[in-house]
Amino acid sequence: QFTNQDPHGFYDCFDFWDAHRGIAIGDAVDGKLAVILATDGGARWDRVAPESLPAAQQGEGSFAASGLCVETLPGGHAWIIMSNPQRGRILHTPNYGRSWVMDTLPITTREGMGPQGVSFRDARNGIVLGGGASSQSADVLTAITNDGGETWLPRNRMPMRSGAWGGVYIPRSNPATVVAVGPNGAAYSR
């Protein structure tokens, strides 16, 4: 359904809003973010015009191991996490990719470490989980939002040495519960 024709391209994660509309994110190429969209169930993917997206940071990409670097919600919302060794960022669209807003995350980043997974329980409340093999005790590995991603607040460190390499809200849990996993185990928070 899609073949990457760019020899420098590398696609990390994808998600679907519904049976027809999907989104995928790739590492930046030549200073431009690589985001592709489908409107026909994935039979055809079209690249979002790079000039309609924020400029990429040098060496920016997403951690692909968890497959959780993009999250969609009904109504057209999508959040994409990405980083380079200097900074983690989150890209948001409220309208199926017609417009985009970028913000910096308070997650610690360095080579091989940064934001690993993003999950939203609704259009306002979300979490970003970070980690990596070089994690240290003072690193910030969790951030939450209650305004749809306009602001992000650091939260307590999860009890796993390497942090989380993936995690999600449990659908319809009450109270809201997040489960995180990594090489050192699993943890949950209510």
- Determine the N-to-C terminus distance: 39 Å
Q: Uncertain segments of ≥5 residues (pLDDT<50)?
A: none
Helix coverage percent: under 10%
Give the overall shape.
globular
Taken in chain order, the helices and strands follow as EEEEEEEEEEEEEEE
Tell me the radius of gyration.
16 Å
Record field, number of beta strands: 15
What structural category do the secondary elements indicate? Answer: mainly beta
List the strand order in the largest sheet: 1-2-3-4
**β-strand amount:** 35-45%
By DSSP (H or I, 4+ residues per run), the number of helices equals 0
Mean pLDDT: 94
Q: What summary fits the major beta sheet?
A: 4 strands, antiparallel
Structure notes:
The protein is mainly beta. Helices cover about 0% and strands about 45% of the residues. The chain contains no helices and 15 strands. The strands form 4 sheets. Strands 1-2-3-4 form a 4-stranded antiparallel beta sheet, with no helix packed on it. It has a 4-stranded antiparallel beta sheet with strand order 5-6-7-8, with no helix packed on it. A hairpin with a 2-residue loop joins strand 6 and strand 7. It is globular. The relative contact order is 0.13.
